[in-house]
Amino acid sequence: MAIAMRVQKSLQGSSLIRKMFEEGARLKKQYGAENVFDFSIGNPNLSPPDEFYKSLASSLVAAVEDKNHSYMPQAGNPATRQAVAEFARSEYLVDAKVEDVFMTAGAAGALNIIFKSLLNPGDEVLTPAPCFVEYGFYTGNYDGIFVTAPTKADFTLDLDAMAAAITAKTKIIIINSPNNPTGQIYSEDSLQKLGALVAEKEREFDTEIYLISDEPYRKIIYVDEAIPSILLAHPRSIIVTSHSKDLSIPGERIGYAVVNPTMPDKQDLLDAMSLTGRVLGHVNAPAFMQRVVANTQGVTVDVGLYKRKRDLLCEGLAAAGYEFTVPPGAFYLFPKSPLADDVAFADMLKEEKILVVPGSGFMGPGYFRISYCVDDQTIINALPGFKRVLEKIRG
């Protein structure tokens, strides 16, 4: 086969998620979309907030008037970066300047730019699992080695497991809070301890370790406490995010990275990111969307609607007998599979035209992920099928 070996391996690794996506398309064609309950993909179903469309309209007028569609600095439109920096000062509690902000084609674009800037062949990228499986693909893009450490039973950080997994080859530790696939949020105390652990391991191995927090779900939370800032936990830290979830615009591919203002040799990393962005073909983040999001920092969709969906799903599954940790953020539920073989269980749900992703697809075997960013009626209509499958298993 002409396809590159690395890509072939990646295709095999992502087959569970891809399989459910393809199966959903087949079932909808066969039975009608209204009769298939598809919880497989984290595609926001809420409309963007009104502020987004107001900014969209005014940005379009401005773009037509100035007729400027030229290249811009690799790190992004200075006015947009200034707006993000102002937001970052209050949100992440650091003295962020415009030069600390790097606009990107979504969080995935930011991570690839950073990984390419930092990783030498054989360097390790460590993350707590269950995790977003594409972190492993991004690591492999630059000949790094992807390593996971287990979390606790409620999916919070297991610092002992993280400590055991850090080696002299660890270059990057990436966390995702609120988490995909679990919806868990890492506490301020755990992040401070993680930062202290990283500093301890740097001294032990005489290395430099970068702590990255991937936060596209930062504003999709159902608790009163603010998400703690990783930039306060360790000087060699970076936040990456996108507006895919908080503004419900995943197709627009707009996000950014904020580099810790106190990072040693910060300028070296920023210079490297400018180069790697071009090498990867990004050139700069989408120019028009940069205009738009400059005016929408701090704006988000109505999170109360997602909370209603979460509660509707959790109440129904709990009544049916499923076991799970109620997620404090994001729009995913990660229940225990009633079968040890989570893939087989997902196949049983498929017989009820319910599509979920086995936990094995997120390095969390024995669980399954439900993406509840769907119509309320989809949840309501699927609950009897969830119950029937569990009753069938329990006899």
Strand content: 5-15%
What would you call the structural class? alpha/beta
Label the CATH architecture of the largest domain.
3-Layer(aba) Sandwich
| CATH secondary-structure class of the largest domain | Alpha Beta
Number of DSSP E strands: 12
Shape: globular
CATH H-level superfamily of the largest domain = Type I PLP-dependent aspartate aminotransferase-like (Major domain)
- From the alpha-carbon coordinates, what is the Rg to the nearest angstrom? 21 Å
- Please trace the helix and strand order, writing H or E for each element: HHEHHEHEHEHEHEEEHHHEHEEEH
| Count of spatially separate domains | 2
CATH topology term of the largest domain: Aspartate Aminotransferase, domain 2
Give the biggest sheet.
Answer: 7 strands, mixed
Strand order across the largest sheet: 2-8-7-6-5-3-4
Please tally the helical runs, counting DSSP H or I stretches of 4 or more residues. 13
Summarize the structure.
The protein has 395 residues and is of the alpha/beta class.
Describe it for me?
- By secondary structure, the chain is of the alpha/beta class.
- The protein folds into two domains: 5-49 and 301-394, Aspartate Aminotransferase, domain 1 (Alpha-Beta Complex); 74-293, 3-Layer(aba) Sandwich (Aspartate Aminotransferase, domain 2).
- The protein is built from 13 helices and twelve strands.
- α6 (134-141) links the parallel β3 (124-129) and β4.
List key phrases describing it.
single chain; 395 residues; alpha/beta; Aspartate Aminotransferase, domain 1; Aspartate Aminotransferase, domain 2; 2 domains; 13 helices; 12 strands; globular
